[in-house]
Amino acid sequence: MTTTTTAPAAPTTAHPAVVQDSLRTATVALADLRGPVPGRLPLAHDEFVATLGTAGPGAPSHVLGRRDGGRPYDRVALSYRSGGAVHQRVWTLVSDHGADVRYELAEDTASRGSFAVLSR
């Protein structure tokens, strides 16, 4: 469920360069998404509830996650079919409060110009 991507080495510049950076990306399926989480779930020490926010009206979705090396995922990606085409939604990490980890929607390839992500 976790995919680690590695960025290529940055070119030499006058600014500090990042030589290597790894992002932890969880790939989920529609079946993994849950509605509102009822009360407190019994979680293992390395589990958390990921809240996947929406850019428009509607309730957020939730996914049960597992920490990788003590850290939550940096991104959560969902591939889905709509109108015969495969699309992808990507959420990025906003906050980590132990068992409650929040993500905001960063990209939805099915959007046709009426979608905007606003940072708070």
Automatic annotation (TrEMBL):
This is Uncharacterized protein. It comes from Isoptericola chiayiensis.
